[in-house]
Write a structure and sequence with these properties.
The protein is α/β, with parallel strands linked by helices. It folds into two domains: 134 residues, Rossmann fold (3-Layer(aba) Sandwich), CATH 3.40.50; 159 residues, Rossmann fold (3-Layer(aba) Sandwich). 42% of the residues lie in helices and 14% in strands. The strands form two sheets. A five-stranded parallel β-sheet has the order 7-6-5-8-9. Strand 3, helix 5 and strand 4 form a beta-alpha-beta unit. It is globular.
């Protein structure tokens, strides 16, 4: 009978964090941004395996640099080399890889693959992206807002677009830190009820307020933060035309941004489909914090590694 590991701390979702743990990770990320290479590297001699079913720029490079700066090293395993669930069962890969390394970052199409891998891994597993959740991105998002806006209580954010994995993690991050968040998505593209319920439960603890609707203008009105993501994510290419039609009116452009506060910042997790969900003059404009946000993936992930390994 295959044994299941139950006493390993993983980071599969921001729902895994208490509000206090969320704040501690943000504080540590902030410290690591100021002092990126600690004098006494906390992960000296430690090894990270990155197992990716999807292509990546930010996740792969930021984890690679993070391990180096913290004193460890990383190995990247491509889809062709591993073949999770095809060439070899997920449980077998998890039990083998976790005998070689100290931590695993798994980037996968199906969140169920991540859950199964974590059940059999004897070392911590970090979600590098799944179809339901992108917690490392969520941490970087909240870190960026805190840098630009200070204390998060009272900050009003608007998320405009698909209720996808990025939206789920941003909702949970906002809920864990006491923010007000308005989500505007076309009918049929709302965040999943499961994540709405998780965010609502966290909001009761912190005083956060999260609302949902279909009107981007109402969501953005007097907001401090305007966040958007692609209308068609990896693996949804066959839905492109249907999604493009559904999301008309949800573009973050100069006219929509004019409804936010004059000092509002704009976020996008990248890669961006310029001219679709966001215009060039916004993503490259003075209110854009998009590339600070991308940089903060590195600092947030260093904090996660130091916390979990």
């Amino acid at each position: 009978m295959t044994s299941v590991v139950t006493r390993v701390r993983h980071f599969l979702s921001i729902a895994d964090l208490s509000p206090a743990e969320m704040t501690a990770l943000l504080d540590d990320a902030d410290a690591l941004k100021r002092d990126p290479i600690p004098r006494d590297p906390p992960l000296r001699g430690r090894a990270l395996a990155m197992i990716f079913e999807k292509p990546s720029l930010r996740t792969r490079l930021s984890f690679d640099v993070a391990m180096r700066d913290l004193g460890g090293h990383s190995s990247y395993l491509s889809p062709q080399e591993v073949g999770l669930g095809r060439r070899e069962s997920v449980s077998d890969v998890a039990r083998v890889v976790s005998r070689y390394v100290d931590v695993v970052v798994l980037r996968t199409f199906a969140h169920e693959t991540l859950d199964e891998f974590a059940r059999y891994s004897t070392v911590p597993v970090i979600n590098g992206l799944s179809d339901l959740s992108h917690p490392c991105q969520g941490l970087a998002d909240i870190l960026t807002i805190r840098e630009r806006k200070g204390p998060l209580t009272g900050v009003v954010a608007a998320y405009i677009g698909d209720g996808n994995n990025v939206a789920h993690s941003f909702m949970l991050g906002a809920a864990k830190t006491g923010m007000t968040l308005r989500v505007a998505s076309p009918a049929g593209f709302e965040p999943l009820a499961r994540y709405r319920d998780l965010a609502a439960a966290a909001a009761k603890e912190t005083g956060a307020r999260i609302t949902y609707g279909e009107d981007p203008t109402a969501a953005v009105r007097d907001a401090d933060v305007v966040y958007t993501d692609v209308w068609t994510s990896m693996g949804q290419e066959q839905e492109y035309e249907r999604r493009r039609r559904a999301f008309q009116g949800f573009q973050v452009n100069r006219d929509l941004l004019a409804n936010a506060k004059p000092d509002a910042i704009v976020l996008h997790d990248l890669p961006a489909h310029r001219g679709e969900e966001i215009t060039d003059d916004v993503i490259d404009g003075p209110q854009s914090a998009v590339f600070d946000q991308a940089e903060n993936r590195l600092h947030a992930q260093k904090a996660v590694l130091r916390w979990i390994v």
